[in-house]
């Protein structure tokens, strides 16, 4: 069986369209349809239901999908394992990171790692936690460093470090003269949030739900990056809770102020996540050892 036919099948399933798969592969629609027909002949079963103008998987197609995904991943892994054994092979470490880690923690770490291992090429993808974990599951990255909730049984997870979350406000806010506030005072403020899929937001909402005040807080604004939240807070548009990693410089410069919540510490874990494989790249083993030494 041609592995490309399986790759095409996966792409059609994941895009939900022969047309979109054809565009992604720079092929014609008839060429994609021909490959799907070949696969159906191979298995002796229809894989897609083409009725009502929609393309959906049949029961046989649903059965085949996880097997096809595993076969393609194993094929890619086998190529990488053989290539790694050849002289002159240049290995690339593909890392995915959630936004806080990718923008504020990893740049310095990757610089130090590169000095110790100059022969490894580094590639970094920075997106929110759910997207990064999807890339890891799809074998598009080797390692994930994420914040927030990691709920998956098929990936290995290890605590990277602890991260403090802080309540921030503008220097002109009435809290500027105070060392701490009562938790209930948050209900009188305009809260500026990250997008709903943000790992940081999920953690904060869990905290506030446990304390029984989430529903009482005005959700004033949702912004897609920590930088935009910092700018909004600095401009006095509201308050927010963010990782201290992201505002350390602004707090030091007095651009943004931090205020403690009385008798409460907001902390969360940052995680390193990987998929267990029969073959593990040397660069992955090296980076895992490096990162553990950094935070041991």
Give a nutshell description of this structure.
The chain has 296 residues and is an alpha/beta fold. It has helices at residues 3-15, 18-25, 29-43, 59-84, 99-116, 129-137, 199-210, 226-234, 244-253, 282-295, and strands spanning 48-49, 56-57, 92-97, 121-126, 143-147, 156-169, 180-181, 190-194, 218-223, 240-243, 257-261, 267-274.
Write the layout of secondary structure elements.
Layout lengths: L2 H13 L2 H8 L3 H15 L4 E2 L6 E2 L1 H26 L7 E6 L1 H18 L4 E6 L2 H9 L5 E5 L8 E14 L10 E2 L8 E5 L4 H12 L7 E6 L2 H9 L5 E4 H10 L3 E5 L5 E8 L7 H14 L1
Parallel strand pairs: 3-4, 3-5, 7-11, 8-9
Antiparallel strand pairs: 1-2, 5-12, 6-10, 6-11, 6-12
Helix pairs in contact: 1-2, 1-3, 1-4, 2-3
Keywords: DNA-binding, Transcription, Transcription regulation
Family: Belongs to the LysR transcriptional regulatory family.
Protein name: LysR family transcriptional regulator
